[in-house]
Amino acid sequence: MNIAIDPRRCAVVLVDYQERLLPAIHRGLEVVAEGARLADCARALGIPVIGTEQNPRGLGPNSSMIRDRCETTLAKMHFDGCADGLAGALRPAGRPAPTDVVVAGCETHVCLMQTAHGLQRAGFQVWVAATACGTRFPADHDLALARLRQSGAVLASVEMIAFEWLRTCEHERFREVLEILKAPRG
Question: Tens digits of per-residue pLDDT, 124-153?
């Protein structure tokens, strides 16, 4: 297991931040804002960002705050996005395949957890941006994070991940990422 994220071999997956679901998500507005901050930091550093939408015909699209930040969005019917091609979408032609995948999204105990486990089975080291994950009931969120940790996923906050990507205050994009992180939340 890697103990540090390799930003040169990393991708971000934003799972099912769908507008219709967000009002039912505990801290829903905060969760989507954290997902957007994660995506903005990743994009500033050239890290690809992919979104997923669970049954978009029935549940509608992701929040525009998320959808607009994703290079591509994968429609899926399985709770595990890998069952609908996510692992392949993370290996596009002309780009090194990632070894590390940072995941965030909704609902923590269903699609986020099952997608994270699918990514692990596909051979990726999974990092969970826990501050950018949400579910309807806090107990389900906490239990899902415990299961993810037990399965070998690394839990972190959006800021922990961003500063780990940077490694140093001398990084050429340090000020840009710092401004994203310092911006008012929500």
Answer: 999 999 999 999 999 999 999 999 999 999
B/e letters for 142-167, b = 16+ CB within 10 Å, e = fewer, are eebbeebeeeebbbbebbbbbbbbbe
At 56 the three-state DSSP class reads helix
How far, CA to CA in Å, does 181 sit from each of 7, 15, 34, 117, 138? 17, 21, 10, 28, 25
Domain residue extents for the chain: 7-182
Q: State the pTM of this model.
A: 0.96
- Beta strands 10-15 and 49-54 are parallel
DSSP 110: I
Contact assessment for residue 74 and residue 89, using Cβ atoms and an 8 Å cutoff: yes
CATH class for the region spanning 7-182:
alpha beta
How far apart CA 76 and CA 125 sit, in angstroms, is 22
Q: What is the pLDDT of residues 23-71, one digit of tens each?
A: 999 999 999 999 999 999 999 999 999 999 999 999 999 999 999 999 9
